[in-house]
Amino acid sequence: MVGYKSKVAEQIHLPSRTKRERALEEAGYNVFNLDSEDVFIDLLTDSGTGAMSDEQWAALFRGDEAYAGSRSFGELEDAVADVMGFSHVVPAHQGRGAENVLYGSLVEEGDVVPNNTHFDTTRAHIANQGADPVDCPVDDARDPAADGPFKGNTSLERARAVVEEHGPERVPVVVQTITNNSAAGQPVSVENSRAVREFADEIGASFVIDACRFAENAYFVTEREDEFADASVADVAREQLGLADAVVMSGKKDGLANAGGFVATDSDALYESCKQRAILYEGFPTYGGMAGRDIAAMAVGLREAVDEAYVADRVGQVQELADALESVGVPIYTPAGGHAVYLDAGAFLSHLEPEAFPGQALVCELYREGGVRGVELGSFAFPDTDRPELVRLALPRRTYHREHLEHVAETAAAVLERREDVSGLEIEEEPEMAEIRHFTATLEPT
Ligand code: F0G
């Protein structure tokens, strides 16, 4: 049994309905344009938005701000070795900085990179190298109603098809993202990671794990994979990550930090090339774009992330939100993910066609109804793909309490009650790059 008591309090408030209506209109029906002060419960992301522990705050004060040879970096190296099992660490300002460093070292123009599902920034960095990022999810991953313990797994069949089509020489790296954020935060089994390891060996490719949510993934493994029923989360994490040649990490998730990221590997050659590229883009390799204090806090956070009680509470809270939503009849993607509950907006607003952006309409209604901010991951965010219309409600770590979850469920229930009256949206203005339009485009009700 574990719990948290507050040592610092931040007041939040629910603006009046009139204020929310106005804020939504001024934001062009895009919640990325809202001021966070106008948001009551912010479930936009779990990235960098969590509460640090008192131990992490203490570490901040002890951070060593030396340009070279920072003691805080030594603490990070120790934490990465203990928790993840890698001897070399190249720090970066956040996950996508680490992606730039790693994929810039591993991937060349004309290459093809299979991944269970590429997160947006991963896809962009691989494309930026002139390579082709290919998603290889299992069949059920995009079915919100299918049951299954590891819907985040890589489809080896799809990955093999990629190699058959392009030839092994064009596939220098196989990536696996755990948990699979772009497939509703679903976990990946150790068995599946082992199979990807073997596959990578067969084709002479490197195996990279995007470890952003590795601890949440390890927790699911202890719950759902028989072989690991008696294993600790920390042991599973090391076992699974140890299968990879390198991990790429955003410390803003399971580093329990507000900033930071890194690449870790045992390969001397990969370390060397990442280090040189990091100097160019991130900073000297003992700080990598982070303040020494942020490195120190992340080193503590990594250790806390594999604490059994912490991670059971964390994933348990996401499940609690899923249960609360289901109990009032809200259709959700099942099973719930590790960091977020994904609402099935296609079923929720079944009278709206994809062209009317049901997901974005639902996001707007959740804000209008209860000041709750989620994010659309459907046809607005991913034009021209056949993804389900999902809305992600991501829980920041150690931040909200039961009454907040109840408010979210009550808000969704109230929208459900008047769902037939919810109208669709159309785009008013959008940027040139369609792939990132959901961050800045403005819309209006139809
Ligand atoms: N990989 C995965 C699987 C992610 O979920 C993210 C970020 C990144 C890489 C990039 O890390 O943000 O530190 O640069 N995901 C956030 C989200 C933004 O809201 O899901 P970053």
Automatic annotation (TrEMBL):
Cofactor: pyridoxal 5'-phosphate
Top enzyme class: lyase
Keyword Lyase among UniProt keywords: yes
Superkingdom of source: Archaea
Keywords assigned by UniProt, alphabetized: Lyase, Pyridoxal phosphate
Residue stretches making up the Aromatic amino acid beta-eliminating lyase/threonine aldolase domain: 42-410
Pfam families according to UniProt: Beta_elim_lyase
GO molecular function annotations of the record: tryptophanase activity
EC number of this enzyme: 4.1.99.1
Stated family: Belongs to the beta-eliminating lyase family.
Protein's name according to its UniProt entry: Tryptophanase/L-cysteine desulfhydrase, PLP-dependent
